[in-house]
Amino acid sequence: MLPQEATVRSLVAGFLIVVMGVASLAWATDGFRAVLLETSRRININEQHPAFPDVFVEDQAGNRLNTADFRGRSIVATFMYTRCVTLCSVAGSDIAWLQKSIYGGDQSDKQKPGVQLLSISFDERDDRAALLDYAHRHRAQLPDWRVVRIPDPADRQRFMRALGVVAIPDGLGGFTHNAALYLVAPDGRVRAAFDIDAAPAALTALSTDR
Amino acid sequence: MKRFSTAALIWIGLALPVSRSVLEAHIVTHQFLQLGTLVAVGYIMGTVLRRRWDSVIAPWNHLGIPGLLLTFFALLIWLLPRSLDVSLLDPAWEVGKFISVPLLIGLPLSFSWPHLNAIGRGFVMANFAAMLVTMGILYLVAPERLCTNYLIEAQQTFGRYALAAGISLAISYVLYVVAASRAD
Q1: Among A184, B50, B105, B107, which residue has the fewest nearby CB atoms (within 10 Å)?
Q2: Is 0.80 surpassed by the pTM of this model?
Q3: Which residue of A has its CA nearest to B65?
Q4: Does the beta-carbon distance from A168 to B77 stay under 8 Å?
Q5: Per-residue pLDDT of chain A (210 residues; tens, 9 = 90+)
Q6: For residue A10, what is the nearest residue in chain B, using CA coordinates?
Q7: Concatenated DSSP letters for B106-174?
Q8: Minimal CA separation from A174 to chain B, in Å
Q9: Chain A: residue whose CA lies nearest to B93
Q10: Is B72 in Cβ contact with A6 (below 8 Å)?
Q11: CB of A98 within 8 A of CB of A76?
Q12: Residue A14's closest chain B neighbor by CA?
């Protein structure tokens, strides 16, 4: 074989590898937009609008509900565990701020907007007393703001998986997790995920929804 | 052939649920031990396979450059925190990792290495060292978690190790080249 022939073949091979390499890289980074899984998860939620799964939950008053019962209303949801003193308590303040902004603290108002506020615990240790305590601490008012747990572990896993929520033990008895505010449209699809310090943006998105 | 079957056994051993859960529990062992050994498995298998197949591959692998490009792109994808992270959550990615890391990083490198001249080898080593240093600094200073599956403290520990590994690699390669040229 002539040396030139090997050069041409190698050029072809190299060219194909570069084309496939760039394509794979684009695929692995959501079109060169995400090098982190969390970024990719947000892109997926904001563009694909995954379904907010139907699971049985129990709120701070012991009411047993299904997330499907909220269809027809918007939901602002966040994942937390009641012992959390960092991110989740910021998320708690976020929801408290939303409760105040949407419902104005006036519980006699008959014109209640169709927004369900939802704090969902992913910690199996959270029982109803823990939920109630969390609800008191953040002045959560029923039925506008439900602090819930998912009693069935399989449901809990399925729910977290569907939204890409990952909570890992922090070695101090708590969890580190990818916290966010989720805006669920009345049709039961997750419209958008917001950073937990972006409650005003979530409120703006809510008002354009209604 | 003994080397080949040893590498294959290590490959299978790494894929066992017990070794996966042990090595993947920490970002340092996940990247250095699991990924590092998978690359080595592919490389060792390649050193056996190339005896027979190098004459077939060589015309398509002039100066070892196409093979090196394959290694480069596959490595780049597995350096993304997203890939590492998703491999812990999505079984398809996990399988993809166990196949692609040996076969697309280690194997092509072993076919290309003998065809690289001194400049080519130096280029590979310098790039690998620079990559480790850059990665180390990024993991060390990133204010946020890069992987949803690992704590920030673990991420910083990895950063420190990667930085140290990159610097040690650069120094030892320079020493090796100096020693080798003296010996000539």
Answers
A1: B50
A2: yes
A3: A14
A4: no
A5: 556 877 899 999 999 999 999 999 999 999 999 999 999 999 999 999 999 999 999 999 999 999 999 999 999 999 999 998 777 778 888 888 888 888 875 554 545 568 899 999 999 999 999 999 999 998 988 889 999 999 999 999 999 999 999 999 988 889 999 989 999 999 999 999 999 888 888 888 887 755
A6: B60
A7: IHHHHHHGGG--HHHHHHHHHHHHHHHHHHHHHHHH-SS-S-TTS-HHHHHHHHHHHHHHHHHHHHHHH
A8: 12
A9: A28
A10: no
A11: yes
A12: B66
Q: Which residues of A fall below an 8 Å CB-CB distance to B?
A: 1, 5-7, 9-14, 17-18, 20-22, 24-25, 28-29, 34-41, 161, 164, 166, 168, 170-171, 176-178
What is the identity of the amino acid at B179?
A: A
Chain B residue numbers touching A25 (CB-CB < 8 A):
73, 76-77
Q: What pLDDT does residue A91 have?
A: 80
* B81 in Cβ contact with B17 (< 8 Å): no
Closest CB from B60, B77, B152 relative to A28: B77
Alpha helices in A64-127 (DSSP H): 87-103
Measured in residues, chain A has a length of: 210
Q: Dump pLDDT digits (tens) for B112-157.
A: 999 999 899 999 999 999 999 999 999 999 999 999 999 999 999 9
Beta strand A64-66 pairing with A56-58: antiparallel
Over range B39-59, report the average pLDDT: 95
Query: What structural domains and CATH numbers belong to chain A?
Result: 3-45 (no CATH), 50-209 (3.40.30.10)
Distance, CA of A43 to chain centre: 12
